[in-house]
Design brief:
Length: 536
């Protein structure tokens, strides 16, 4: 393919990602549960000047290395401490994932396959959401994908293999600095599985492991050394408790967090890659059947990439939906290959698979929408989440209509138009939710407004007390440390004082009448949170 067309591909992807990942980054407040924590850690680095030990709410944060927090702090320096700046590192990482996926598709298959794969990845829900969130998983996925791309390039282009393999260790070290030893585990499983299955063990000796290890240590070792010196025992906690014990069963010395069943990631993969996941079984089957037709066994490489990561995290005791993200680029590449072949040679099983997938989803959504319109099963939805009933119904109608249109176009054999509609489903739904629903959800999912109100009431430097888990965005917006209490009784004991005291309360009541019950005065209610005091 000519360089002009490849340049056009890059322009298309840059424009697409510019809209999907960067547009309206500041519409949504920093939400509670992780976003507030990571933003607060980066904010603390600027305030304290301590870039070695990540600090959250006055305590060292040992769970993850600091690369993502460093990137966020640098964005704060460049663009100010705000919601947009906090999310720029994730948006850039999302763009990087899409571009590297395109490059790997172009090198492994052809430029059109790379383009289809990149569009599929960019328009999948998991990538869109995490590219617009203050979360380290998208940055980790970028460096992991880059490392595996560099390895694949070294395998395919043997003449320049040394250069690619050495660059692989740079990307691997940066992935390690983002999330820790899991970077070595995941890339090791994929590369090891590929070498064993292809009977290419000798390839490991070409990977410049001694020199690569030196490069890796030069990048990763300095911070870990300084961190252990500043916080003795850190390495034991980070390497053993946070990683090994989290992976092992509940019989380990430290019980793992986020325990879920083995099949937990099946719906995560289905929803995170929607609507493209509907064709993933066919794409995988096709790759198994035609793997010999792909250069250097790269179809097998992608299959191992998907299966190894999926099985590894399924076997782990501790599970979170975002853990699965590093396999999405490989899945997108197989789907891109599948779609390129289908559009070049339409018909057959591929067409029926797309019809079946889009038809089933359309039918399920249509029936679900009809049910909620008639029955209204969640009468307290607005009080619990800030989502207005008519907005929820409209979002379901939009989703149903788009899947129905994709089904109709495929039925009429307008396959290219069907691909465009499928690519537009999640972005259109996402931006409808972002513009029409998220502003009303902000007071429920974030503590911005209530934290600003509380900050004006408290003396400078005083900690705020709060009842309710996961109010980390209050730490970010108030720039104060918080003290969590775990029961209404503990809160009332704190408020029993002749001095005026304030606290922040998060309610999980199902109705407004049940909320904020306690021996205190309610001064201000915003969303599902209230400022309370021992005096009117």
């Amino acid at each position: 393919m000519s360089s002009r067309k490849e340049t056009f591909h890059f322009v298309v992807l840059l424009a697409l990602c510019g809209v999907l990942f960067f547009a309206g980054l500041g519409i949504r407040d920093i939400w509670n549960i992780d976003e507030g924590m990571h933003a607060a850690i980066a904010q603390n680095m600027l305030i304290s000047g301590n870039w070695i030990t990540p600090i959250y709410n006055g305590e060292p944060f040992f769970d993850k290395p600091p690369l993502f927090n460093w990137a966020t702090a640098i964005a704060f320096i460049l663009f100010g401490v705000n919601e947009t700046a906090a999310r720029i590192p994730s948006a850039v990482a999302g763009l990087g994932c899409v571009i590297v996926t395109y490059l790997l598709g172009r090198r492994t298959f052809d430029a059109r396959t790379g383009l289809f794969a990149a569009v599929i990845l960019a328009t999948s829900p998991a990538i869109m959401v995490l590219s617009r969130a203050v979360q380290y998983d998208i940055l980790f996925t970028f460096f992991t994908t880059l490392a595996l791309y560099l390895f694949a390039s070294g395998v395919i282009e043997e003449r320049n293999s040394k250069r690619y393999f050495l660059a692989f260790y740079v990307a691997l070290a940066l992935a390690f600095m983002t999330k820790g030893p899991i970077a070595i585990v995941l890339t090791g499983l994929v590369i090891g599985g590929y070498c064993l299955h292809r009977d290419r063990i000798k390839l490991l000796f070409k990977m410049q492991i001694p020199l690569g290890s030196v490069i890796f240590l030069l990048i990763a070792a300095p911070w870990f050394t300084l961190m252990e010196q500043a916080n003795p025992g850190y390495l034991n906690y980070f390497l053993y408790q946070q990683h090994l014990a989290n992976f092992l069963s509940g019989a380990a010395e430290y019980k793992p967090r986020h325990i879920e069943p083995f099949y937990y990631y099946l719906p995560i993969l289905l929803l995170g890659l929607l609507p493209w996941s509907l064709m993933l079984p066919q794409a995988i089957a096709r790759a198994v059947k035609h793997q010999r037709n792909v250069i250097a066994g790269m179809a097998l490489f992608l299959l191992i990439w998907i299966v190894a990561i999926f099985l590894f995290f399924s076997a782990a005791s501790s599970k979170l939906g975002t853990y699965l993200l590093p396999l999405f680029p490989a899945a997108a590449l197989l789907l891109g290959w599948y779609w390129r072949e289908f559009l070049d040679q339409p018909g057959g099983k591929a067409r029926y698979g797309i019809l079946l997938g889009s038809g089933v989803v359309f039918a399920v959504l249509a029936l679900f929408t009809a049910y909620v319109v008639v029955e209204k099963p969640w009468p307290n939805m607005y009080f619990r989440s800030g989502i207005a009933w008519h907005d929820f119904v409209m979002s379901m109608l939009l989703l149903s209509a788009l899947f129905g249109l994709a089904f109709l176009l495929t039925w009429l054999r307008q396959n290219r138009h069907a691909f465009v509609v499928l690519a537009a489903i999640i972005p259109l739904f996402f931006f409808y939710v972002l513009v029409a629903i998220v502003p009303d959800m902000n007071p429920y999912k974030s503590s911005r407004q209530i934290a600003v109100e509380l900050d004006e009431l408290l003396p400078a430097g005083e900690k705020f007390w709060f009842l309710g888990h996961h109010l980390d965005s209050a730490v970010f917006y108030s720039r104060r440390e918080g003290v969590e209490v775990y029961s209404v009784g503990q809160l009332e004991a704190y408020l029993e004082s002749e001095e005026r005291r304030y606290a922040l309360v998060l309610t999980r009541a199902r109705t407004e009448d049940e909320a904020f019950k306690g021996n205190y005065h309610i001064l201000k209610v915003i969303g599902n949170k209230a400022i309370v005091s021992n005096q009117p």
